Amino acid sequence: MPGGAVPAVGAAPREDEIPIRLTGSVADADPLPNFVNGRWVHPTSVGLLDVPDPSSGSVIARVPRSGGSEVDAAVAAARSAFPAWREVPVAERAHRVLALRNLLEARAEALARCVVRENGKTLDEARGSVRRGIEATEFAASAPTTMQGAFLEDVTSGVDTTLMRQPVGVVAGITPFNFPVMIPLWMAPLALVCGNTFVLKPSERVPLSATLLARWIEEAKFPAGTFNLVHGDAGAVDALLGHPGVDAVSFVGSAPTARHVYATAALHGKRVQALAGAKNHLIVLPDADLERSVPAIVSSAFGQSGERCLAGSVVVAVEPIGDRLVERLAAEVSGLITGPAADSVTEVGPVIRAEHRERVLRWIEEGKRLGARVVAEGPVPAGASGFYVPPVLFDGVTPEMAIAQEEIFGPVLSVIRVRSLAEALDVANRSRFGNAAAIFTRDGKSAREFVHRIEAGMLGVNIGVPAPAAYFPFVGWKGSFYGDLHVTGRDSIEFYTRKKVVTTRWF
Ligand code: NAD
Q: What's the CA gap between 401 and 378, in Å, rounded?
């Protein structure tokens, strides 16, 4: 067994012990390294991308645009580490995962501050997302139970059947910008504990947290080559998708990229799961408890600056609640404090990039042009250089409007008014996405009807962000997911393993 004892829970690392810096400008520092075959390597012949802090716009790191040869090296390392790693007993692999979990737990605050810096989440939001990543790591450590197979004696007289699970091989994980810690931790610990080796290609927009994770996976004594980190953008992704050494691909990102990843990986014979975009509906019935529902709706739509795949994006108000609901929502939205992610008073941080701010602002203009009414608009810091978007509440939205159909991924909430629950369900079910949906009501029968009829996978009853805990699968429907087996929960064990069924007779 490579590795040895589980490292004790220790203090957060000093800044000079980790390969990135968390404070100060690092524009003149070395670009971030890749981590391949247990070594930190600086690709020399590739271009670099700047990584700005969304709260200030100032460059905090530079990241290599790895290409085919960097991907080749990482996949080769993962392939050659696979035969020995899969022979390590699952309980010992789980031991490594627990070592990582202990390091994450001890350094959760440093990790959360890194997320604040590179992603623009507020500290509370970042802490919550790190916590969810730790939960997924803890779930992975239960593999000695979750990987168990089945045995049936006497399928016919004197013949027994055994089902067992074995690892798939080399898994590539490709992750988005909006959860820099949680989403890599949905993948790597589970893939590794099942006996696979792993290549992570994190979002080039948030490469710092992934670099810290790689550093701590190394410290948790996973053998060289079992976990590899390759920074880059679409070029690195395409090199992974077509690579004969990659057996399975876990992807999370926008809908167009998810479709591309799903089709390309499948064309190359790989197992693939691709989580995509969303447009989540929050149905509010006339009997809803507005005192408690309105804060839940506002936090769903405007928390994490709306850059969340479970964010409420459309409120479907069943009359006669519309006026009362819009009045309360408007009061909350116009009071939201937008500002730098690290400020303790900030409720809505910046969005990820200047281009994304322009895109969201274009959607707000488009809403106005289509005839929707802005009934509340929160202030943004004057003269700020960060990527701030005013929180906006639209009333008078119709289901046909593009702002009611397309993912905006910013602090914008649309209200559609309807006359009945049946009409509300019809509006929501016409969406081409089906990630999450919620209902706010005191009526059990209506809630049951919603749960039964809604065409989305993650549902909330009086819950604005119905995020499943890591021991359940993250189940997008329709255009929010491409594949068969979801991330986390028992689905992830199924995805990261393949089955053998052995039929045995002894003469
Ligand atoms: P994105 O699609 O731009 O990027 C995701 C990953 O794909 C990144 O690693 C990126 O480098 C790579 N990539 C981007 N363009 C590519 C291309 N043309 N070819 C190959 N690879 C490419 O997504 P994002 O903006 O980083 O993330 C936000 C999106 O992710 C939103 O749409 C959100 O809804 C979605 N998301 C979905 C879930 C879910 O569970 N369904 C969870 C989180 C985020």
A: 23
Pocket test for ligand 1, best of 71, 199, 203, 477 (most atoms within 8 A of CB): 203
244 and 287 housed in the same domain: no
Name the catalytic one among 97, 309, 348, 380.
309
Q: Is the pLDDT of residue 8 over 50?
A: no
Q: What is the pLDDT of residues 229-250, one digit of tens each?
A: 999 999 999 999 999 999 999 9
Ligand 1 centroid distance, CA of 113 (Å): 22
CA distance 350 to 362: 16
Residues 170 and 26 in one domain: yes
| pTM attached to this predicted model | 0.95
Q: What is the pLDDT of residues 179-217, one digit of tens each?
A: 999 999 999 999 999 999 999 999 999 999 999 999 999
Residue 200 Cβ < 6 Å to ligand 1: no
Give yes or no for residue 433 CB within 6 A of ligand 1: no
The CA 202 to ligand 1 mean position distance, Å, reads 10
Is residue 126 located within the same domain as residue 235? yes
Same structural domain, 263 and 377? no
Total structural domains within the chain? 2
Mean pLDDT of 394-419: 98
**Same domain, yes or no: 397 and 416:** yes
Judge if 192 and 289 occupy the same domain. Answer: no
- DSSP string for residues in 260-283: HHHHHHHHTT-EEEEE----EEEE
* 488 ligand 1 Cβ < 6 A: no
> Is residue 471 in a domain?
no
Domain membership of residue 469 (yes or no) is no
Within-domain flag for 466: no
CATH at residue 249: 3.40.605.10
Same domain, 268 and 400: no
**What is the average per-residue pLDDT within 67-73?**
97
> What phi-psi label fits residue 150: left (phi over 0), alpha (psi between -120 and 50 degrees) or beta?
beta
**Token pair belonging to 193:** 């504990």
Q: Does residue 210 line the site of ligand 1, with CB under 6 A?
A: no
280 lines ligand 1 (CB under 6 A): no
- Active-site residue, 309 included: yes
Atom of ligand 1 nearest to the CA of 352: 25
Interval 53-80 mean pLDDT: 96
Q: Is 276 touching ligand 1 by the criterion CB < 6 Å?
A: yes
List the beta strands (DSSP E) in 130-236: 150-156, 159-167, 170-174, 197-201, 227-229
What CA–CA distances, in Å, run from 37 to 49, 78, 99, 186, 222? 24, 7, 19, 22, 11
Within a domain: residue 495?
yes
Indicate the top mutation candidate among 49, 118, 178, 264 to test ligand 1's pocket, ranked by most ligand atoms within 8 A of CB.
178
The residue type of 312 is: G
Q: What is the largest CA-CA distance in the chain?
A: 84
Hey, which of 51, 233, 257 would you mutate to test ligand 1's pocket, going by the most ligand atoms within 8 Å of its Cβ? Answer: 257
Domain that holds residue 413: 280-461
Ligand 1 atom closest to Cα of residue 275: 41
Same domain, 304 and 265: no
